[in-house]
Design the sequence.
């Protein structure tokens, strides 16, 4: 199933993407007096409800045009936004860093979340802005000390993220956080695809800036795969439904460009991040 959040009259609503239509779950539930979750948070806390929603929406063609809706972040209020750094060989090589023996974990904040098609304002006193195309894991079940072979049980689905970064702030000190958590610097979406619909072992990941391909790789190139990441993090941090994990970016970021006159992202740039069988996350900088 392909789920999303959208804005309707100032309210965040749960939608199901079916071809070019968005089905308003609450509207259909009211129409048929059905007892189903009507928010993303409720679905993430009860993954068994997917079948109920799927059956309810089956055959309902009365949907909204996906090109005319206003998207919200596909997860609105995660308790945790965790990120894995240096998780593709190509990115490690361009940054001239050793292969990490364990996943490099850092965090982002809810205040940095942004939606598909949302315009993102750049701080005026900074200049070295960079993109990072990433597959996102969405957690659907609370877990601690999860074995790798059981990790899939705790995953609800997957989405797309852009770990926008101010390189100036990231490397100002030994701590990366400030360069990663600027307001709206964590676009996610447009949708979450439930895990049953994806083979995550070999998905194409692509980033385009103003139509030019900058990153092109496959999830098979990850140093630590999704299940290993979930298992590792859960040894120290209890994962909960709605938590999201950025799984790392491939090579091709601006930071890795050896040209001393390289061009950082700027106001007016359009960033498109596409992941095979999920979709495309688009944001324009201002």
Sequence:
């Amino acid at each position: 199933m392909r789920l999303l959040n959208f804005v309707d009259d100032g309210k965040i609503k749960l939608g199901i993407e079916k071809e070019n239509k968005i089905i308003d779950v609450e509207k259909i539930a009211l129409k048929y007096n059905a007892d189903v979750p009507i928010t993303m948070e409720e679905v993430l806390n009860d993954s068994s409800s997917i079948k109920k929603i799927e059956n309810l929406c089956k055959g309902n063609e009365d949907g909204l045009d996906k090109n005319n809706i206003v998207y919200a972040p596909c997860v609105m209020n995660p308790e945790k936004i965790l990120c894995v750094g240096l998780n593709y060989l190509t990115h490690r090589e361009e940054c001239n860093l050793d292969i990490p023996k364990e996943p490099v974990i850092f965090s982002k904040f809810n205040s940095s979340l942004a939606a598909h098609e949302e315009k993102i304002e750049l701080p005026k006193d900074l200049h070295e802005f960079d993109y990072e195309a990433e597959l996102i894991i969405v957690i659907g079940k609370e877990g601690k000390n999860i074995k790798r072979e059981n990790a899939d049980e705790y995953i609800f689905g997957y989405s797309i993220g852009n770990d926008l970064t101010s390189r100036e702030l990231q490397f100002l000190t030994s701590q990366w956080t400030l360069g990663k958590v600027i307001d709206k610097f964590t676009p996610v979406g447009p949708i979450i695809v439930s895990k049953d619909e994806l083979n995550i072992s070999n998905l194409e990941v692509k980033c385009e800036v103003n139509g030019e391909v900058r990153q092109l790789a496959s999830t098979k190139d990850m140093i630590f795969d999704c299940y290993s990441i979930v298992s590792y993090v859960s040894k120290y941090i209890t994962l909960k439904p709605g938590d999201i994990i950025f799984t790392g970016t491939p090579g091709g970021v601006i930071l890795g460009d050896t040209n001393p006159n390289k061009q950082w992202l700027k106001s007016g740039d359009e960033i498109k991040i596409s992941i095979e069988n999920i979709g495309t996350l688009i944001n324009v900088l201002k």
Observations:
- The chain has a mean pLDDT of 94.
